[in-house]
Amino acid sequence: MVRQLAVICAVAALTPPCWGQGHALAQSVLPNGLRHLHVTRTSVPLVAIEIQVRCGSRLDAPGKFGTAHLLEHMIFKGANDQSAGDLDLVVENAGGVLQASTTRDVMRFSTTVPTAEARPVLEALSRALRTPALPEAELSREKGVVLDEIATTANNPDVVARGRAFASVFGPGPYFHSPAGEATQIKAITREDIARLHGERFRPDVVTVVTVGALPEMEARTMVSECFGAWPKPQVGLTAPDTVGLPRGSNSGRSDNPSVSCLVFAAKRSAGDSNLVALLGHLARMRISTQGSARVTIVSEPLAD
Q: Residue 100, class by beta-carbon neighbours within 10 Å (0-12 exposed, 13-18 middle, 19+ buried)?
């Protein structure tokens, strides 16, 4: 049987979507530069929270691939006024589960909790993001966890295909390596490496807090301001360009470009799979053609045994 594998990856900067009547997207920026997006939905007494920090694996230093991923893990390991595990405890006592992930561009922290518990969860997240303790003993343990994650996903077809897609389209550079890191480099990452990345990139002007749920707009805005407003406004500019990557040959690197870049990667086992490649490209163009000026890149190559 012919095995077929395809991954669609998209990097998009879109105009705000239409949320429908009563679901308008409200945007605000705190004086320190932190951005807040809110949608009021009163159908259930819950609030979904997601915090994005523009601190992804593209900022990993050569020879230290995996630094951003380890920093994400260490956010859970205590802050100046929290012990390891306290952040999870606050979220779980509120009825939620805290999820986190690191991509090439951003770090994400998300949960959903009852409306009445949103404030304590946001307060705990604010402390963890601003002042992580980064204990050395916890770092040693988390290196083992990250190495296990890398080993577990090494034979995952989706992960392999996605990695080959980025390598083919972006070429050598910050988007080449996996956000998980390189197993051979994880042990070389020090607490100082992680603290340096946190000091350079965990700043309010690269943070977006998203809240969706049973909160009026002004109440949500006030809550976010009170939880994150004391985060000092940066006095210096970013040490690295704050733009997303584009495929080789692209001449626009601005992160506020309203176009959509879509990459279709198809690994094929036979010449007959060319129909699959063409279909994926067609579907991708149909999917995004109404959301901006679409640019679809197709990468196709044989998949080795």
A: middle
Per residue in 256-293, pLDDT tens? 444 444 444 444 444 444 554 455 444 444 444 444 44
Q: Which helix (H) or strand (E) holds 232?
A: none
Pairing of strands 25-29, 35-40: antiparallel
Instruction: Give the pLDDT of residue 226.
Output: 98
Angle (CA) 194 58 235, round 5° = 65
The beta strand positions in the chain, using DSSP E, are 5-12, 25-29, 35-40, 46-53, 99-102, 107-114, 207-213, 260-268, 294-302
Among candidate residues 13, 128, 35, 115, the one with its CA nearest the CA of residue 73: 128
Residue 295's beta-bridge partner residues?
A: 261
pLDDT tens-digit series, residues 15-51: 344 444 457 899 999 999 999 999 999 999 999 999 9
Between CA 38 and CA 27 the distance in angstroms is 7
Task: Give the three-class secondary structure for 4.
Answer: coil
Q: Which residues contact 102 (CB under 8 A, 6 or more apart)?
A: 56, 57, 68, 69, 72, 108, 179, 180
- Write down the pLDDT at residue 245: 57
Q: What is the pTM of this model?
A: 0.75
Cβ-in-10-Å burial (0-12, 13-18, 19+) of 140 comes to exposed
Which residues have C-beta within 8 Å of that of residue 83, sequence separation ≥ 6? none
Crossing angle of helices 67-74/191-201, nearest 10°?
80
pLDDT for 111 equals 97
Residues linked to residue 300 through DSSP beta bridges, in sequence order: 266
Q: How far apart are CA 213 and CA 116, in angstroms?
A: 11
Strand arrangement of the beta sheet that strand 99-102 belongs to: 25-29, 35-40, 207-213, 46-53, 107-114, 99-102
